[in-house]
Design brief:
about 70 residues; alpha+beta; 2 strands
Length: about 70
């Protein structure tokens, strides 16, 4: 789930990733690194957001989940 978003951003690299433990669950994940200003590449997010807004009842807020964690 993390990589889905991160791979679509400029300013993030997957080279020399560090393993990081989160919490006490006993496992680690490799964390992508921020190496420059984060910018969104051309994507369909705007179109997807518009589609979600049109499909949802007017009384509902449309939200997007963005995963994040501690600084690696």
């Amino acid at each position: 789930m993390y990589y889905f978003y991160q791979k679509r951003l400029d300013g993030v690299t997957f080279e020399a990733m560090l393993k990081q433990a989160f919490g006490t669950a006993g496992f680690e994940i490799e964390c992508a690194r921020v190496v420059d200003e984060i910018k969104t590449r051309a994507s369909n997010w705007r179109r997807t957001g518009s589609w979600a807004r049109e499909a949802a009842p007017a009384r509902c807020r449309v939200k997007q989940t963005v995963t994040a964690g501690r600084t690696c």
